Amino acid sequence: MTASQIRVRPANTADVAAIMELRRPIEGTIVLLSRERVVWYEQIQEIVVATDDAGRVVGAGALHVMWEDLAEVRSLVVAEDMRGRGVGHAILEFLLDRARNIGIKRVFCLTFETEFFGKHGFEPISDVPVDAATYEEMLRSHDDGVAEFLDLARVKQNTLGNTRMLKLL
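The structure corresponding to this sequence follows.
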């Protein structure tokens, strides 16, 4: 299977079981946090899936808007038997195009996969790249991903070992 045989499309509710199955081997580890099924349905509009020529879901990822010009790539996962075949690249490029199309200028990720994201133009960051007023506004979010972006103490156990990375579009 080559990248040209991979199709990336917006996820639908019928994909949730396949997405959860893709994540199952590493979910709940420090690499990938567990999410309840209801969360996948609530966030289905943010998620895309990659399918092979047989229609099997072989990868998934999400783009979560955090601010006017800022979004996060979340939960990028590829089936073990499909790694190294361009699936992750196809998903990430789809998400980055989606970000550009809605006016996003910066894309954040929190990852152990620094080499993969680095190849796509993401660079490690150590600070929170928003001004003080935006930071104060973002503090009002109940989203754990926003808290991770803001580097808040309440999510430190989820971020240990991860690298905070940013790409300018």
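The chain has one domain: 3-168.
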